[in-house]
Amino acid sequence: MTNTEFNLMPTIIGSMPHRDPAAACRVISRYLTELPAWPQLPRRDWRELMTAQYSEGFPGIDITEDRITARRPEGWDDQLIALYGDYIASEPARYAISSEFAAGFHSFLTAHPAASKGVKGQVVGPVTWGLSVKDELDTPAVYDEVLAEASAKLLCLKTIWQEALLREISPRTVIFIDEPALSSFGSAYLPLSKEIIQALLTELLGSIKGVKGIHCCGNTDWTLLTETSADVISFDAYNYASSLALYPEEVCRFILRGGGIAWGIAPNTDKGIQEESSSSLKDRLEEAMAPFTRQGLEFRQILRHSIITPSCGMAYMSEEGAERLLELMVELTHKMRERYL
Question: Which residues lie closer than 8 Å to 46 by C-beta, 6 or more apart?
């Protein structure tokens, strides 16, 4: 496994409420000096919503604000062959994310902290992408074997392109695969087998050179993630701490083999952040970690392999609330390090 000793570095999941990318990057640079991440800005433009943001370049794709459709026009087979050829050759240039779809990313490339200890990016996961994108019969793309496999390769190419640019900022890159759809695993909404889901994730994980993370902001079967090659599991510890605690042995084995946990302990709502302090979040975090110490893990070992994040994206907070959230995370990291590390 890649080194996951982050010692409680704070970072974000991705989305911010700002409409001005420069303003979002200034806030990130002010607070996230160790592990900054580029901001997704869906309130600036709907094209920065995570599915649309990673759809440019897919064969036959039709992207509108209302829906994203994978069509098969004349010449589609040739486009698909070209995608596979670029994937095999690891040539991502044609699948770059444009500034129209990721103004936050392009702004971040020239407006980031100068001496960070790492840098984080993110990519939508193949299951979430495939459930959101429909074919011409309105069937989710993930249920079409050809579309599902092609989408995984598209996301690999976009990840390779993104990470190469982030490595110019820091050689220690962290890429999270955002998979909120996994919270529906086992339900009628997501009747995919564990094996199919893990195969799609494994392909995308294989395209990441640095630290590989998977983020799911709801409850799920966490062995979906612990049994992959992921280095970090990212989850909503503020609302769903008990869900991860249902898998103490599996999580402990994951950490013992070098894995890390990104604890989404800061609430991503204005109301939640007003009701909490760094001290109250410290209490919540310690409580969330406690079940794993009962399995024999040393508390400090958990802390060394931990990242602090918001519970999920911050797109629908106020700008003031989002800044306060970042401030609380920094305060929390300081308190925990001062007490334990």
Answer: 52, 65
- Which tokens go with 329? 């995370």
CA distance 311 to 322: 12
Name the band, by pLDDT with cuts 50, 70 and 90, for residue 186.
Answer: confident
Overall residue count recorded for the chain in this entry? 341
**Which residues contact residue 306 at a Cβ distance below 8 angstroms, ignoring those fewer than 6 apart?**
6, 7, 8, 260, 261, 262, 263, 289
pLDDT digits (tens, 9 = 90+) for 70-116: 999 999 999 999 999 999 999 999 999 999 999 999 999 999 998 89
Three-state secondary structure call for residue 271: helix
On whether the CB atoms of residues 102 and 18 are closer than 8 A, the answer is no
DSSP string, 175-228: EEEE-GGGGGBTSTTB---HHHHHHHHHHHHTT-SSEEEEEE-S---THHHHTS
Instruction: Choose among 50, 188, 28: nearest CA to 108.
Output: 28
> What residue ranges define each of the domains in the chain, with the CATH number in brackets?
9-340 (3.20.20.210)
Distance CA(51)–CA(127), nearest Å, equals: 11
Q: For the chain, give percent helix, strand, coil, nearest 5.
A: 50, 15, 40
Name the CA dihedral angle for 325, 311, 53, 194, rounded to a multiple of 10 degrees: 170
pLDDT per residue as tens digits for the range 217-242: 989 999 999 999 999 999 999 999 99
